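Project channel, design review

CF: Before we commit to the Cellulomonas wangleii constructs, I'd like one complete example in the thread so the newer folks can see what an input/output pair looks like. Taking UbiA family prenyltransferase.
RD: sounds good, go ahead.
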Amino acid sequence: MADTSTEPGHASGPPHAGRRLVALLLASHLGPTVVVTSLCTALAVAVGAPAGTVLLVLGTVLAGQLSIGWSNDWLDAARDLAVGRTDKPVVSGGVTAAGLRTAALVAVAASVVLSVPTGAAPVVAHLVVVAMGWAYNLGLKSSAVSWLPYAVAFGALPTFVVLALPGDARPAVWLVAVGALLGVGAHLANVLPDLDDDAATGVRGLPHRMGRRATAVLAPATLAVAVGVAVVDPPGPPRGATVVVGVLAVAVACAAGVTAVVRPRSRAPFPLVMLVAALCVGALVTTGLEGAVGHP
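CF: and here is what came back for UbiA family prenyltransferase:
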């Protein structure tokens, strides 16, 4: 029988049920999962979706994000063990890699089932989101186009929300662009603290190829462009509240970039990026989302 003492997720005995649940939640990348789900749900409310559709959006996006988070920690288990990432539940023994694989697959199936009542087009849009997340985890993170899954997935999220509305609603191009730009900014900021660990295990995505300083500059710049699109592109002149929220979002984006340079190992830039995303949604809401939803 093979020695399993160094296998990811190995512990001296099976973890307690409560500990396993906590580990599963942590392995889901809980912060980003909650933020993305909350923002999509808020967007659904803002565009006037009926209560039933809002609940379907919430459940579908939550299941999809859980699957992406769990698949990430499952597929990265060996790498995390190699660099001593004891903050990862699968390394510390709270959950096994096999357990995460099962959870990820169940969550994918749940996201499909939950999205079916919204219609064929929304199902496809959300499948694109999940497929991009899994494609990143399966290897695109190590390529020069590591940014692409984030851009496509974050652009597809508002597309899913709008397509889920009753009738023949279509998302405005600028709304999709805001999501895509936020996704690229999130990718750049998320990778910054792990550049050294990634390099040690052979991961060389776009941020690794550009270097820490260039990535720390490009991340807030991309976020600032996203904010600009959210403030300027909706029809009509920007409202005062929209401009105020936009300026605040740009300031937070700059703070994320400065933090990444001054404190290279800090994980603060990514939560700051999530705050920028929330502020972007806030800016969109203050515009009344006029022009965000069109009809063919």
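RD: helpful, thanks. The mean pLDDT is 86.
CF: Residues 51-75 form the longest helix (25 residues).
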